[in-house]
Amino acid sequence: MNCNHQSGNLKSGGFFGNTTPFELAMEFNTPLYVYNEAVLRTRCREMKGLLRYSNFKVSYSAKANSNPALLAIIRQEGMEADAMSPGEIYLLTAAGFLPEEIFYISNNVSAVEMRFAVEREILVSVDSLSQLEQFGRINPGGRVAVRMNPGVGLGHHQKVVTGGKNTKFGISPELVGDLKKIITQYDLKLAGINQHLGSLFTDGEVFLHGVRLLLETAALFPDLEFIDLGGGFGIPYHKKEGQTRLDLVRLGESLDEIIKEWNRRYGKEIVFKIEPGRYLVAECGVLLGTVHALKENYGTVYAGTDLGCNVLLRPAMYDAYHELEVYTRRRFDDPAPKMVTVVGNICETGDILAKDRQLPPLKEGDLIGVLDAGAYGYSMSSNYNCRLRPAEVLIRENGDPVLIRRRDTLEDLTRNYLSSLELSPKVF
Ligand code: LLP
């Protein structure tokens, strides 16, 4: 096959292993999420090696990607996991995580949802005094964690800043007195405190500042089992422009230093945890799509693809940047890059995957690879416009592709309307 790749990722040994984007598209159709197991394992090992401190645990934040095949690999790599909903708990359990390996970081949940975790002996972190009281009523005498908000936050976009004075998350340290009263009232055991400042930092300064603030609060509780510093570890989405990686060595050294000093003050070596999501899974994922149309509208050249915002929401929601690769079977007459805006097939003006990009000249039938799509890609996809969510394929370490989630079918779209089907079968 004559397959001109804009860059790397060639057959045998590259991202696509023993196959090619065109073979994958032929077999599984597009849009298609493709994950590479070796890359996933590499990122897991990097995070596990962050600290020299031995009482250190990495808890994968399952919201970034909850495909059970990936979860099982992550567990094999020795990670625990944090969940944000009963659904994530359910999938983590299906992937083999034990209750003691799951941490339910809840936010504004019903008593029913809280009980779901308590009954499975999964540790719950609560996000307000009101939810701490609810926990106390449900599970008096139980173990619980609380999420603090130290008053600072970070993130690649305002919508993902979760710490600080303008967000709904966490409990302000000013309320520690009230918090202690509720703990005493319900005879609770405060197992740990946690925080998450926000998503994506590439320079650890704000994160480290937040850690120091959290430790000030932690010192007010003499009997903690663990302190969870949250996630947010960034990846370089602008690799081709030379963006550098987060310096994990420097960050780890600073954290080790802070923890050592704090343990001395606290008088014991308790567990320290982090909760990365994106760092572990973003770079192991490429989203493949097909160019179906080209047009020029009032001076803008558009490439119309099947990569709508239902498949990858990040660009539409946060103006997020993902690098693109072009795969074509043609030989370029003139390979000089041309300015193009890559859009999807969804009925929204904001359905733009990449605005004003310089790409090799595209033609109908070419494939596009969206890089670093493994985190918050599939997990934020939807059936908007009644589109079918894509399949997911894993390139195993031996290079072979395996299907790890089938594409939605049209029948999936009616599956939950069964009662109306029964009421009016003729409608369908
Ligand atoms: N822990 C908690 C409590 C969280 O809420 C999150 C992410 C994480 C850990 C993991 O954060 P990470 O290491 O992945 O940055 N959809 C957005 C990101 C939202 C993150 C929400 N919370 C995006 O696509 O950029």
Explain what this protein looks like in three dimensions.
This protein is α/β, with parallel strands linked by helices. It has 2 domains: 2-35 and 282-414, Beta Barrel (Lyase, Ornithine Decarboxylase, Chain A, domain 1), CATH 2.40.37.10; 106-276, TIM Barrel (Alpha-Beta Barrel), CATH 3.20.20.10. Helix content is 28%, strand content 22%. It contains 13 helices and 18 strands. It has helices at residues 21-28, 37-48, 68-76, 86-94, 111-119, 129-138, 176-185, 205-218, 248-266, 278-281, 314-318, 410-414, 418-423; strands at residues 4-5, 32-36, 56-61, 80-83, 102-105, 123-126, 143-147, 189-194, 226-228, 271-274, 285-297, 300-305, 324-328, 338-343, 352-359, 367-370, 391-395, 401-405. Strands 1, 2, 11, 12, 13, 14, 15, 16, 17 and 18 form a 10-stranded mixed β-sheet that branches. The chain has an 8-stranded parallel barrel with strand order 3-4-5-6-7-8-9-10, surrounded by 4 helices. Strand 9, helix 9 and strand 10 (271-274) form a beta-alpha-beta unit. The longest helix has 19 residues, at 248-266. The two termini are 44 Å apart. The structure holds ligand LLP. Ligand LLP binds next to helix 10 and helix 11.
